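User: Predict the structure for this protein chain, please.
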Amino acid sequence: MKKICTIIVTYNPNLTDFSTVLDSHTQSGDNEVIVVDNGSHNNAEILKIVDAKKFSLISLQENMGIGYAQNIGIKAAKIKGCKYIILFDQDTIVTPNYAESILQYYKEISQNEKVATIGPNYYDPNTNRIYPQIVLDGIKLNKIFPKPEDGDFTFASFIIASGSFYDIDIFDEVGVMDEQLFIDCVDIEWCFRALKKGYKTYVCNKLMISHTIGDQRKKSLGREISIHAPIRKYYMARNNILLIRKKSIPFSYKVRKLFGIPLYMSLYLYDVGFAKEYIKFIFKGLKDGIIGKDGKYEQ
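Assistant: Here is the predicted structure, written as structure tokens:
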């Protein structure tokens, strides 16, 4: 049986960067690598790169969203007889032997804990800034920065999907990714759903990988923020409201979001100079979230 299957979801990737990402996976200890392409315009070039690395490619005819693509990869990994999977975005570069290292960490912690998923710490390769992990404490979302000297593991309420490691059987217990969210909050929803069933999420304090959040970073009002395309803000606004409607989400998180969404979106509009496109997509997202509309954005 092949042990570890890496699943990488792509959508119109920069081909040079993507080739570098795949190069990192040739040394990471994966037993199987599956690329799921979400209807990219450069799919033919992606195929050439994937074939050259002797990896597998599953091509979707259109962009079906991150959750759908991840689920396609999980299903393919099961068919191939893989015991474990690791999810990745198209821009995450891993360290040598990452897969084998995180497998050993998983085996260690799962001896004493019911584990949903484990993941690494992350840093932005453009700024070398380390991203915080999040712990829900009442209605507060505490930012923590796990360090190697703190031990091997730190509990987190949820983690970024890219780099996250799973025993494939966990999806029989918790269910797969929520495809109707399309993109954004998919990882948050899954981790909280797992937690409700008694499975916890952990960060491996001694693992660090490169990952980029947003199209660019910007300093505003004394804080550093990620700038995304306007359409992404639609999904962020909508899906955060949709999370409030879900039974699996802790009540305190719902309260936090109920009061925090208006403030966060107002600040973001200020950060982008109240650009019309952002106003349109954010308010459309808020409206669709309130009426419970999910799935892919429709004009």
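The chain has a mean pLDDT of 92.
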